[in-house]
Amino acid sequence: MQKINSRNKPPLIPLNGPLRHTVDIVLILVGSLITGLAFNLFFLPNQIASGGVSGLSVLAEAWFKAEPAFTQWALNIPLFILGVIFLGKQYGIRSLLGSFVLPLFIFLTKDGPVPTTNPLLASIYGGIGVGLGLGLVFRGRGSTGGLTILAQIIQKITGFSFSLSVVLLDGTVITLAAFVLGMEQAMYALIGLFVTGRVINALEVGFSSTKVAYIIADKTEEISQAILNDLDRGLTKLNAQGGYTGDNRTVLMVVVGQNEITRLKAIVRSVDPGAFVIITEAHEVLGEGFKREVQSP
C-alpha cells in the first residue's frame, strides 16, 4: 500500500494573508447577492416569511407596504450595535459587511421577473437559493447579521444552545406569519426554512450545533497552539498508534461550533496541509463554551 505524501504542497489559501481576506469578501458578496435574488424571486412575491429579519420584512411589506430592504436595514442596525456590545468588536466587524450588502442587493434586484406564483415551488426553490447564499457567506467566515446576532446574544445570556435560540426566534416569526398572512402561508414558510437549513448543511460539514474533529498530523504541537490561540477552543491530545506504520503518534480531538468548522479546517490546512482530519457530529456537548445544564435550586 503506497502512502501519498502531500506535505510539500503549500496551503491553498494563507489563513491570515490578504488572499484569504479577499476570498472571504468575495464569498460574502456573492452569497449575499444569491440570497437577495432568491428572496426577491421566490419568497417576497409569494409572501413566504421563512424566519429571520428577511421574514419580518415580508410581514412588514404585507402589512405596512414597507420596502423590505429598508425594513432589514432598520432592524439590522440596532442588532449590529447589540452584537458589538454583547459579542465584541471582532464579531461586529464580521457581521457589518453582510448586514449592509444583503438589503442593498435586495433593493437593487427588487424588480426582477417572478418565476412562479406557486407557493410550494417558491418555498422549495427559495429555500435552496437562500441556503446556497447563506452557505457561501458562512464559508467566507461572515454573517448577514439579523436574528442570528440576537440568537447568539440569547445563547450568551441564558445558556440556551444556539440552535434552540434560532428555533425560538424563527418560530416567533413564523407564528406572526400565521396571524398576518394565514396558516397556510406559515406552513409554506416552514418548508422554506427547512430547505434552507438542509442546503446550508450540504455546504458545511453538518447541521449539528457542535462537531468533534479528530486531527492526525505531524505538526500536532503547532496545530494545537493555532487552535488554542486563533480559534480560542480547548482540545485533548490522544495517544494512538498508526495501523500501517506502528508508530506512536498524537491525535488531537477538538469540539467546535457549527460556525467554526470552516475556520478550523483553514487553521489545520495552513499549518500542515498533509494533515488527516475527521469531522463528525456531536449530538450533545456539556461544558464550558457549550450548552450548560440547568441546575436545580
Distance between the termini: 59 Å
The backbone outline, from C-alpha atoms, is: elongated
Sheet of most strands: 4 strands, antiparallel
Q: In percent terms, what proportion of residues is strand?
A: 5-15%
Give me the count of strands: 4
- Mean pLDDT, all residues: 83
Structural class: alpha+beta
Segments where pLDDT lies below 50 for 5+ residues? 1-14, 292-297
Q: What is the H/E order?
A: HHHHHHHHEHEEHE
Instruction: Enumerate the strands of the largest sheet in spatial order, edge to edge or round the barrel.
Output: 2-3-1-4
Helix content: 55-70%
Radius of gyration: 21 Å
Number of helices: 10
Summarize the structure.
The chain is of the alpha+beta class. A hairpin with a 6-residue loop joins strand 2 and strand 3. It contains 10 helices and 4 strands.
Description of the structure:
- With 297 residues, the chain is of the alpha+beta class.
- It is 59% helix and 10% strand.
- The chain has ten helices and four strands, in the order ααααααααβαββαβ.
- The protein has a four-stranded antiparallel β-sheet with strand order 2-3-1-4, covered by helices on one side.
- A hairpin with a 6-residue loop joins strand 2 and strand 3.
- Helix 1 packs across helix 4, helix 2 runs parallel beside helix 7 (162-180) and helix 9 runs antiparallel to helix 10 (261-271).
- The chain is elongated.
- Residues 1-14 and 292-297 have low confidence and may be disordered.
- Keywords: Cell membrane, Membrane, Transmembrane, Transmembrane helix.
- The chain crosses the membrane at residues 21-44, 69-86, 91-108, 120-138, 159-181, 187-207.
- Its main location: membrane.
